[in-house]
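re: ur question from yesterday

yeah so i grabbed the chain u mentioned. its 483 aa long if i counted rite. heres the sequnce exactly as i have it in my notes:
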Amino acid sequence: MKTIMIDKTREIALKILYKIDNEKAYSNIVLNEMIKQNKKELEDRDIGLISEIVYGTTTWKLTLDEIIKKYSKIKLKKISPWILNILRMGIYQIVFLDKIPKSAAVNESVNLAKRYGHKASSSFVNAILRKVTVKDYEEFFQLKDDIQRISVTNSMPIWIVEELAKELSMEKVEQIAKNSNLRPDLSIRINNLQIADEGEIYKQKDQKEISGQKLKAKISKSDLIRRLEEKNIKVEQGLLKDFLILKNAKNIENMEEFRQGLFTIQDETAGLIPIILNPNKTDVILDACSSPGGKTTYLAEMMENQGKIEAWDIHEHRTKLVENTAKRLGITNIKTKVNDATIYDEKYKEKFDKILLDVPCLGLGVLRRKPDIKWQKSKEDIEEITKTQKQILENCSQYLKNGGELVYSTCSILKQENDNIINEFLNEHKEFYTEKINIKKNNKIQNKDFFEKYITNDNYLQVYQNNETDGFFICKMKKNNKR
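ran it thru and got these structure tokens back, copy pasting raw so excuse formatting
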């Protein structure tokens, strides 16, 4: 029997796509797991191709399926999941990756079909892929119906396009759909904790010297940039003072600098949320939906490891993520707790000076990073998720001291999850009012003009995904029982 030569990188990509589709696995998590399992056999360029195929195929799945429908007499639901993903991978390479010859895309797909199907499967894959050209995608731009055209040309589920169209102009909706397919840069946050030379972390307020040991930053921005550039990583300044943008960085979590806790990986939009909460060193703060800990640890760093932060999440394995991140960064003022924020607990009433509620959401603002969300969510999920958001806000608002501040945020872009939640809450709770988000006076924000333009008349910060950031919503409220 003739041995079938299979390209290892494409086979790994296929297995990842199968898990995403059939086991509802998250693309970023299963991708990292599969790369770790096979890292001895993979070079950097292999990892790059696997990531490109996985994220590209997942991002463009709706469009790819429309092209398959054009040439296949068999309905999609009748096609084996393995063969369907082989077709999607092949079409993605033909239509969207001009550096890969069509012959290579077709031949490698046929070889995969032989292993994961049968003779008829490989013939089926061969017949369809040989017909596919870039024109198959270009034809979709001729669709007359705007909703359908935006959906198919940007691989965006129709229900999302329809929901956005209720709130925004069609031009704006199309721009959001396009931007949702952009591949984001990697951003990191520098660890600014003050430590002693030997590495011990001190909590004493305003302490400058202890037992003759001078405190200093764990690493300076300039030193970290130098060390990264020595690894041939291109580094740019971020929108926020403590953030850097990295180009062509690979396996970053395996870097010595990462393991030493000199920085952590975090999107700048996520970093902006703790900045707006603006913690003080002596505050007692609640982060009610804290995992995986990026925002929690940034609060701790801004508090110089003083005060106290309670970090809740609903599952123990998720609070462990917060603990692990804090430990790596050298943070000791965070106490984690497995706790369901949708259930009110009287013992926390008016206990906290500040509260961060980065509530569960549909995640439609982070489709650039997690394109699988598009296929795992539906319109029916809106009612359930907004119910959860309302309950968390209702409960946790009661845990805030009089005069305290609360930030409500999501990485979503639908008004049902954002403006509507806040407006309803404010109508029912007259002791709360929105505070203007002061961008210009915040020294943690470098590019103030970028964020200033997104503040609405209601004092909300609503950003739709663009070249620089994900989409997100932030509202800051203050409690005053005497109003």
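noticed a couple things. The longest strand covers residues 400-410. also Confidence is low (pLDDT under 50) at residues 197-213.
anyway ttyl
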